[in-house]
Amino acid sequence: MRTSRLISLMIALIAAIIWMVSTYANASNSWDPLNFVLRIAAGAVTIAATAEWLVLSVRESRREGIHSGGPRRKRAARRRAPAVPGTALEVAHPEPVVSSPEPAVPDEPAVRRSAGSGTVADKVVSVFGRRRSPAQDLAVVAGGGAVLVVAYLMERKVRRVVVRVGLDAASAASLESALGAAPHRVFGAKPPTRGVFDRSAYTQLEGASGSGAWSIAVPTVDVDLLRYVLARAEEVR
To answer: What is the pLDDT of residues 184-224, one digit of tens each?
Structure first.
């Protein structure tokens, strides 16, 4: 997570520098289409990368807070009562409170996004040859893990959802929340024709579940993964 934070911060700084340089280059604010597009793009990347850095920072601080103990309470319990001045007797010191060590709770591995649902930081890292592949996602799911897929429910009003895709109970609950209860059947696939997202990178799947018909647009590279999980969703229940 710290690596992702560092990458997001670097992206935000680089984009901010590009924005400032392009703004200074057009100090007269004359109409320059190329400069205008560059400033808008750099500003958008700066905002997105900064927001992602803040989210990752908050998550890490919460994780550290959960796994840190309560040293202040333990120190307070071990303090001795002061002696009463001017008397021959002193208040007996209470025995220090010795608590049994709590068993360590292993951290649940973070669920990463799928190959078709990468963040800005993931796309930058992929430039250096660390691109996540659909085969890796399938291996993770087959091994008992899960990935997050950014999809769009093609309802009367297109709705963006993030679905946990895997063969575990949490993934089954996420799929049921989006598509209804298993079993699922996929009737066909087609290019999406509506919705404010990059439709060229998505495929719209049509199907039905125990709760009724559904239609969802998922990244094209994640279609095989979703079909694999839907065919086995009933086994998880």
So the answer is: 999 999 999 999 999 999 999 999 998 899 999 999 999 99
Distances in whole angstroms, Cα of residue 173 to Cα of each of 76, 150, 189, 200: 44, 16, 24, 29
- 8 A C-beta contact, residue 93 and residue 78: no
Tens of pLDDT, residue by residue over 75-108, are 544 555 455 555 444 555 556 655 555 555 445 5
Question: Using omega within 30 degrees of 0 as the cis cutoff, is the peptide bond preceding 183 cis?
Answer: yes
Percentages of the chain per state (helix, strand, coil), in multiples of 5: 50, 15, 35
Q: What is the DSSP letter of 97?
A: P
Tell me the backbone φ, ψ of residue 188, rounded to 5 degrees: -175, 175
The Cα 137–Cα 113 span in angstroms is: 9
How many other C-beta atoms are found inside a 10 Å radius of the C-beta of residue 216?
23
Provide φ and ψ at 187, rounded to 5°. -90, -35
pTM comes to 0.54
Residue 25 exposure: Cα atoms within 13 Å on the Cβ side: 13
Contacts from 96-104 at CB under 8 Å and sequence distance 24+? Answer: 99/74, 102/69
| Every domain of the chain and the residues it spans | 2-77, 120-236
Q: Do residues 231 and 141 touch, judged by C-beta distance below 8 A?
A: no
> Are β-strands 159-166 and 212-219 bridged in parallel, bridged antiparallel, or unpaired?
unpaired
